[in-house]
Amino acid sequence: MTAMNFLEKDQKLSLDKLRNVLVRLEDTIIFALIERAQFKQNEIIYVQGAFPFDNEPDFNGSFLDYFLLETERIHARVRRYTSPDEYPFNGNLPAPVLPALDFASHLIPNKINVNHHVKSMYLLNILPSLCAPGDDSNHGSSATRDVECLQALSKRIHYGKFIAEAKFQADPEKYTPLIKARDTTALMALLTNELVEERLLRRLRRKAEIYGQEYADESDAEEPAPVPSTGTYGAATNGTAPSRKRRRSSTSDGTKRRIDLDMVVRLYKDFVIPLTKKVEIDYLLLRA
């Protein structure tokens, strides 16, 4: 697959290349969700003020808020958010310490950023279905995976700007009067291809099914615990140990999976696709 390279000035927007990017981002998002799903919800890391940050007396956000802010501060210094396909969740980030890169100007100037919707959607609608309830104390690991999920979802959704621009350039006569009339209903109908969306959801479900399988060979079906020596852990042994089976989630057909397939499809159908379309329409209206 050929990806978009925003440093190539002579590269034109191509719907095929953009779709390749979106297909690759499906993989990124699914793997990020799988990684987050190994930990419990750990709801305390989303509670404002639950953790004291002694070196930041003016900060009163959640553990995730702090982790995300510090991550973006580092990324901003190495010019991540100067790239036209990267959007931060925080404002007032430090300036890059590296020389600026000369990116191609595919988009009209805009300040569209829907990351507040992305974060809210992720915390309220995705995490409860993705992770088991409870607290396993893996707060830092959970926040790390949350940031990865949020950044991947943000990138996927904001690619709607490039999709909208490419579609406009392919047929400006059809889009221009609707944009001037600010007819968002007609624009939504023009942007929507139900067959493509259905194909995307089928592909997504199949990927989640394949990537989320728990692989186990025959020796993993029942794994005996190591036999400690006499007196270890304060208890004598007779040289044998009880059988210990690994716990895995399973479906009705016996397949072991690390992620809920319906949740992944619902994520795209109910949130990613609608938010992407919102970005597309918001961007197109600026062309008036």
Automatic annotation (TrEMBL):
<keyword id="KW-0584">Phenylalanine biosynthesis</keyword>
<keyword id="KW-0963">Cytoplasm</keyword>
<keyword id="KW-0827">Tyrosine biosynthesis</keyword>
<dbReference type="GO" id="GO:0004106">
    <property type="term" value="F:chorismate mutase activity"/>
</dbReference>
<feature type="region of interest" description="Disordered">
    <location>
        <begin position="215"/>
        <end position="255"/>
    </location>
</feature>
<dbReference type="GO" id="GO:0009094">
    <property type="term" value="P:L-phenylalanine biosynthetic process"/>
</dbReference>
<dbReference type="InterPro" id="IPR037039">
    <property type="entry name" value="CM_AroQ_sf_eucaryotic"/>
</dbReference>
<comment type="pathway">
    <text>Metabolic intermediate biosynthesis; prephenate biosynthesis; prephenate from chorismate: step 1/1.</text>
</comment>
<dbReference type="Pfam" id="PF01817">
    <property type="entry name" value="CM_2"/>
</dbReference>
<feature type="domain" description="Chorismate mutase">
    <location>
        <begin position="143"/>
        <end position="280"/>
    </location>
</feature>
<dbReference type="GO" id="GO:0006571">
    <property type="term" value="P:tyrosine biosynthetic process"/>
</dbReference>
<keyword id="KW-0413">Isomerase</keyword>
<feature type="compositionally biased region" description="Low complexity">
    <location>
        <begin position="230"/>
        <end position="241"/>
    </location>
</feature>
<dbReference type="GO" id="GO:0046417">
    <property type="term" value="P:chorismate metabolic process"/>
</dbReference>
<dbReference type="InterPro" id="IPR002701">
    <property type="entry name" value="CM_II_prokaryot"/>
</dbReference>
<keyword id="KW-0057">Aromatic amino acid biosynthesis</keyword>
<protein>
    <recommendedName>
        <fullName>Chorismate mutase</fullName>
        <ecNumber>5.4.99.5</ecNumber>
    </recommendedName>
</protein>
<dbReference type="InterPro" id="IPR036263">
    <property type="entry name" value="Chorismate_II_sf"/>
</dbReference>
<dbReference type="GO" id="GO:0005737">
    <property type="term" value="C:cytoplasm"/>
</dbReference>
<dbReference type="InterPro" id="IPR008238">
    <property type="entry name" value="Chorismate_mutase_AroQ_euk"/>
</dbReference>
<keyword id="KW-0028">Amino-acid biosynthesis</keyword>
